[in-house]
Amino acid sequence: MGVRSWFEGWPVYRQLTGTDPLGRGAAAKSDGSRALTARTDTADSMARSVCPYCAVGCGQRVFVKDGQVSQIEGDPDSPISRGRLCPKGAASKSLVTSPLRQTTVRYRRPYGTEWEDLDLDTALNMIADRVLAARDETWEDVDAEGRPLNRTLGISSLGGATLDNEENYLIKKLFTAMGALQIENQARI
Amino acid sequence: MAEAHPVGFQWVMEAKRRGAKVFHVDPRFTRTSALADSYLPIRAGTDIALLGGVVRYILDNELDFREYVVAYTNAATIVTEEYADTEDMHGLFSGFNDDNATYDQASWRYEGHSQNRTTRDSETQRETAAGLENESHGAPVGGETERDETLQHPRCVYQILKRHFARYTPEMVERVCGIPQEKFFELARAWTENSGRDRTGMLVYSVGWTQHSVGVQYIRTGAIIQLLLGNVGRPGGGVMALRGHASIQGSTDIPTLFNLLPGYLPMPHHANHPTLDEWVDSIAHPGQKGFWGNARTYGVNLLKAYWGDAATADNDYCYGYMPRMTGDHGTYQQVLDMIDGKIKGYFLLGQNPAVGSAHGRAQRLGMANLDWLVVRDLFMIESATFWQNAPEIETGEIVPERCRTEVFFLPAASHVEKEGTFTQTQRLLQWREKAVEPPGDARSELWFFYHLGRVIRERLATSTKPRDRALLDLAWDYPTHGPTVEPSAEAVLREINGYDVATGRPLASFTEMKDDGSTVGGCWIYTGVYADGVNQAARRKPGSEQSLVAPEWGWAWPANRRILYNRASADPDGNPWSERKRYIWWDADKSEWTGYDVPDFEKTKPPSYRPAHDASGVAGIAGDDPFILQGDGKGWLYAPTGVLDGPMPTHYEPVESPVRNPLYRQQANPTRKVYTHPINTLNPSPPQEHSQVFPYVFTVSRLTEHHTAGGMSRTVSPLAELQPEMFVEVSPELAALRGLSHLGWAHLVTSRAAVEAKVLVTDRVTPLRVDGRIIHQLWLPYHFGYEGLVTGDSANDLFGITLDPNVLIQESKVGTCDVRPGRRPRGQDLVDLVVDYRRRSGNLVHRYPPMVTTDVADSSSDQEA
């Protein structure tokens, strides 16, 4: 390394002569940091998303590398959030990639003391059986005066405020057709 | 707001930078207080007294925006002489019925109106959470009203309001809320000075207002102030609800709620809605004005979306398939029914009631008494492991070997592993693209419910039972894709939007819907989100390339309108109230409404339009009536019907309060929803004896670093590290009084539970002087539970269950307690401690606070002769 390149590499020189007089950008970069590449630059794809926590609706950009979420950032285009995220939103990569996430079906049989494994398809069919049985056992056709009721009060559901509109739509549609009235979510709470 | 909605708070700071004055009213000094111009500590549960003081200040000093008030609100409307006010009845309104603790609303009506063609009585409305549901569609006030635009008639709303709030003086505000008078005047002056032609002020609230036994009336009081000051339907104005979950607005619009169907149509009631005609008439109220006049169209389109080709005019579009309500089927009634063994199966979909709902012990004991429970979540939450790790294991109330509940835990897809729309707090739908496939068995709710419906329909394919027709005829053919056979969210969104049956063309507006079965639409207020076959919610034109209104980012219901009732941003003649507050106005040259937003008015109806005497529906709305969903086109300072606990807000004490109501003999909301059940024990309050056993007030709220019941934050390591422990904030004065030491342990006791927490002695909570005595308040976060990376006792275990009568939301922002140093006892000792407190408070055999206390004049604080 010659003296000239050594001197021109000195951050103070670059700060005084370059385009970064405050020394907060290019002038302050070391060779090490210059060689770094942002995960957002090397991502295979980016999805436009929305933060899953509160109802402000901050825009998120979800970067994906090799089929995995590699970074989640605030979306600067959003007129709501202008690129900002709060501590929760900023932690949402940790949320979706958390090693604590359950990724398999777990089953606790009546009077059981441990979790067991269960195949997803088996679980779906067992749940369908139980829904139909509970519905049959608690079905009410008419009230005492013969007016229609068409319902079961044997089945309850709670949840929806963290779900998509399309999901809530199907949940309500299926439960209504099933006669299950006792459908609630956080909006009641 | 800085704590719980931090990124939204940037706009408050922007406004402050431009000269706005920010006030923060809260029992606890928070990050919001730190950035506000003025902070007002308040006794939890007394906001109506504070806001009522502001109403009185406005009326006494005639600071209302008179032109707006006369033209756009019901201030001038005359009320029948049968009406009697709380002023004359110790805190009750006329029409109270002791037998069922509800009001007959007949005497509240407008002069000259025959009462209530609706068949729903107040008790049914309370049971079905129907208070003011769907604007005034539950509140028929059709026809002409008698008005005195000088506002001098003694029975006009303006004068009634003035009398009703006469006793909410600054002295009374101080006495009730603990807010010094100079602080009150600072707030009242700033609010009124910042309202009028040239300026607007905004009110922002959250569940600190809704989670009360009189929560709807908190918001009504805020709305009254904003209407009086002309702050509704104008830029920079409004009453803004900051909601707490990514799509909680969406799950209200397309409701997973027992009493509603999509677009705020009511779930049918067995007695009141036996037929399609009776159902739609109860919404439209034939002859009434406003957009609910088209209720039949909205209802038929929903039925067509549900039952497709099977729904025809001949079979009333399958209306007969609908299940019917008979009363209260809400989440708290359900939990008590679970304890009583009436419910067999329970689905939990991204919700954790073991921590997040009031009375955690009741929640957990309910879940332990089911046949089966399905939990769909990202993480192993408390509501899935109650049979293993609940506090009731330690007390022996749940024994795994004797707990029969079969539990299915199904992993859910996260927000980046599925596509679909969230509706955020300003009614804005934003489409999320899918980034990656969900891991392992994780699936979306769309997948789960589509396939559950598919399997159930296959099982029933040969059924001949009439009850199964609704499932077999259901329109359930959604296209699927990918290796997991995921249904198409976009196809569901298209159905929600609606389309023409013959051509398949997506509808552009709900005004294109027909009531003859030729169009389909799953949620009328969302029609337009798929206009032109384009997913409008996916629009992402950068904010920097648009106007401040940013109409091309996402899509807001209804009709991509960003401010509701924005006709009120122009004067009655259609001109902007001022240049500074120009937003929507009448363009006389083009004969249409125009402006920066989508006008919330028929586009070509001129300001001069006056309806014919017998006009109804949309045609009945005059050219200067901005509140187009109201039966009289007016903003309601006074609700002549529909609000179950009174036509105007009244300060009642929380159900659990250490204080006798200083304003009236009536102590608490006389129409509140009470559950008498052995598990639902309540602390005594004046005028009952022994309230001093629970001398302190406690309240709960969120931390920035955690989310609700912790299922999405105590499981995430950066957030768990930032807020690792359950704690309670106490003032130095209370710490000294009760021997609590900073960073030591304390436990709080109510007649439901004892909960331990680390002590944070801080000036952020301050003792208040209330009605001549010192009231200590404690604050806790409610995020903690027994699963996750960081654990702790759940604050919601402390609460009992008492609900607001209009919406059946629980009072979980205020209660009374005792606090003691040290950790709580374990096992049987814990049960004994709580039982001992109940014994000392005279509540070993269940006693509930009396609904009506107007005959008790024992209090020195009683203001009435």
UniProtKB/TrEMBL annotation, chain A:
Q: Name one GO biological process term.
A: anaerobic respiration
GO terms, molecular function: 4 iron, 4 sulfur cluster binding; electron transfer activity; molybdenum ion binding; oxidoreductase activity
Any one Gene Ontology cellular component term annotated for this protein: cell envelope
Q: Which metal ions or organic cofactors does this protein require, according to UniProt?
A: [4Fe-4S] cluster
Looking at the record, the residues that make up the 4Fe-4S Mo/W bis-MGD-type domain are: 44-100
Q: Which InterPro entries match?
A: Mopterin_OxRdtase_4Fe-4S_dom
Kindly list the places in or outside the cell where this protein is found, as annotated in its UniProt entry.
Cell envelope
**Gene3D superfamilies according to UniProt:** 3.40.50.740, ADC-like domains
Q: Which PROSITE patterns match?
A: 4FE4S_MOW_BIS_MGD
Predominant location of this chain?
Answer: other
Its keywords, alphabetically, are: 4Fe-4S, Iron, Iron-sulfur, Metal-binding, Oxidoreductase
Q: Which SMART domains match?
A: Molybdop_Fe4S4
This protein's source sits in the domain of life called Bacteria
PANTHER family xref list: FORMATE DEHYDROGENASE-O MAJOR SUBUNIT (PTHR43598:SF1), TUNGSTEN-CONTAINING FORMYLMETHANOFURAN DEHYDROGENASE 2 SUBUNIT B (PTHR43598)
Describe the family membership recorded for this protein in Swiss-Prot or TrEMBL: Belongs to the prokaryotic molybdopterin-containing oxidoreductase family.
**Protein's name according to its UniProt entry:** Formate dehydrogenase
The species this protein was found in: Micromonospora saelicesensis
